[in-house]
Design brief:
Structural class: alpha/beta
Helix content: 40-55%
Number of helices: 9
Radius of gyration: 19 Å
Number of strands: 8
Strand content: 15-25%
């Protein structure tokens, strides 16, 4: 049985994505769609309420690195402006439409599938990501990642996000591996590097810059064709 694990960040590491949540067109289109669910809210009010609900959710949290659940945000908007008890399927549909309207660039980085497949033959693998389950889970399926990753810890299901070490420790416990036998791959020094190192893991940086931190990456890489060799050096397989 494999006794070592490689954990991956998702957005900015495996998935190349750019979104625009400020575009007024997004809220105009979503406002029209909400009308079909008997939710009546203007584009301007929708945008304002959406960000207000996010701020309220974060302010009410006692977590130092608090996270919101976008599903709950849209549930509250639909409840307030039209439905007493919005159906779960309707809220999910609205959340996924919002995501699709904001996306401007979306896809895997080059060579990701081959690299992850090679790593999975040598190590246990899992995802630890600051992400919204309501659209991240289908996005992983869309991009063919679910077949590799049976374990994915998404911050929106926990109410806190990286660099909170609980995410990292929970992930390691689910795969039954120790910190010294684990490596995390990410692109964000402040969240990924700090969180992984505080959890006792090794860390490999993908295209990320440096930072005024007390921790240094164990290795770096810029293309996924390099990943297998880099991981083997940082965490020699059993």
């Amino acid at each position: 049985m494999k006794r070592q694990a490689v954990f991956f960040d998702l957005y900015g590491t495996l998935i190349d994505i750019f979104t625009d949540e400020q575009d007024p067109w997004v809220y105009s289109a979503l406002s029209q769609y909400l009308g079909y669910h008997l939710v009546r809210i203007s584009p301007e009010e929708l945008k304002k309420t959406y960000f207000e609900e996010i701020r309220l959710s974060l302010n009410l949290s006692n977590e130092p690195h608090s996270e919101v659940d976008i599903y709950k945000i849209f549930y509250e908007i639909m409840r307030r402006y039209g439905q007493d008890r919005p159906a779960k399927s309707a809220v999910i549909a609205v959340s996924m439409l919002y995501r699709s309207l904001t996306r401007r660039r979306f896809g895997l980085f080059s060579n990701v599938s081959n690299a992850v497949s090679a790593i999975a033959r040598l190590y246990k693998i899992a995802i630890i990501s600051d992400a919204q389950w309501v659209f991240t889970e289908p996005e992983m399926e869309m991009l063919g990642l679910t077949r590799f990753f049976r374990t994915a810890l998404l911050s929106s299901r926990f109410g806190y996000k990286k660099p909170d070490t609980r995410l990292f420790h929970t992930a390691m416990s689910r795969l039954w591996v120790k910190p010294e036998d684990s490596v995390y791959i990410g692109d964000n020094p402040e969240k990924d590097l700090v969180g992984a190192k505080k959890a006792g893991m090794k860390f490999i940086m993908f295209r990320g810059g440096g930072g005024p931190f007390d921790f240094k990456p164990d290795a770096r890489f810029s293309d996924y064709s390099e990943l297998e060799g880099v991981v083997k050096k940082v965490l020699p397989p059993d």
